[in-house]
Structure formats: C-alpha cells, structure tokens
Amino acid sequence: MKIYLDDERKCPNGWVLTKTATTAIWLLKNNKVTEISLDHDLGLDDETGNDVILWIEKMVYTTDYIPPKIHIHTANSSARVKMELAKKSIERKRR
C-alpha cells in the first residue's frame, strides 16, 4: 500500500488518499505500507503531516518498526525543513 496524505491535491494513481494524520497513522499501524507521501498543512484540522512523520520516527526508535519509503510534498517551506530533518533521523537509525 502507498499512502498519499493531502487535503487538496489529487491523489496519484496507485496510492490511497487520506486527508488526516489520524487515518494515515491508523493505516501505517494496520497495513503493509511501502511508501508514504506527506503534505504538512491539512486544512482546518489541528493535525499535520509532521504528526505522521514524528509517529514514524518514534516507532523506529522505540520498536522494531520498519518504516515505508517517505516522500514529502508539502509547499510549506518551514514545515518541509522540520519534516526533512525527521526523515533524515529515521534514515540514520535504519542504517
């Protein structure tokens, strides 16, 4: 399964669209996810794509969780920096 987290953009073919961080995390917990692509800002919801990447990072550091390949497609430049740092942390831990 490939997860596409976004509240506005069109979902690419072959991906499963989710519009909330809660749903994305539920899918990660309950399915074999090979890739995830994250937007940061999710409309009026208090959740963000950063919540998802922080959950993945926590799972990698505290369990034997194997993360999916992570893509970040947010247009929010300051949020992208934070999310890229978490992605790099995940990649370092997995080496």
What are the main properties of this structure?
single chain, 95 residues, alpha/beta, Rossmann fold, four-stranded parallel beta sheet, 3 helices
Percentage of β-strand residues? 15-25%
Secondary-structure-based class equals alpha/beta
Distance between the termini: 23 Å
Which spans have pLDDT < 50 for at least 5 consecutive residues?
Answer: none
| Largest sheet entry | 4 strands, parallel
What is the spatial order of strands in the main beta sheet?
2-1-3-4
The third-level CATH topology is Rossmann fold
Overall domain count: 1
- The count of strands amounts to 4
Percent of residues in helices comes to 40-55%
Question: Mean pLDDT across all residues, rounded?
Answer: 95
**Rg from C-alpha positions?**
12 Å
Helix run count: 3
Overview of this protein structure:
The protein is of the alpha/beta class and 95 residues long. It has helices spanning 21-30, 49-62, 77-94, and strands at 2-5, 16-18, 35-38, 69-72. The chain has one domain: Rossmann fold (3-Layer(aba) Sandwich). It contains 3 helices and 4 strands, in the order ββαβαβα. A 4-stranded parallel beta sheet has the order 2-1-3-4, with helices on one face. Helix 2 (49-62) links the parallel strand 3 (35-38) and strand 4 (69-72). The model has no long low-confidence stretch (mean pLDDT 95).
Short characterization:
The chain has 3 helices and 4 strands, in the order ββαβαβα. The protein has helices at residues 21-30, 49-62, 77-94; strands at 2-5, 16-18, 35-38, 69-72. Helix 2 links the parallel strand 3 and strand 4 (69-72).
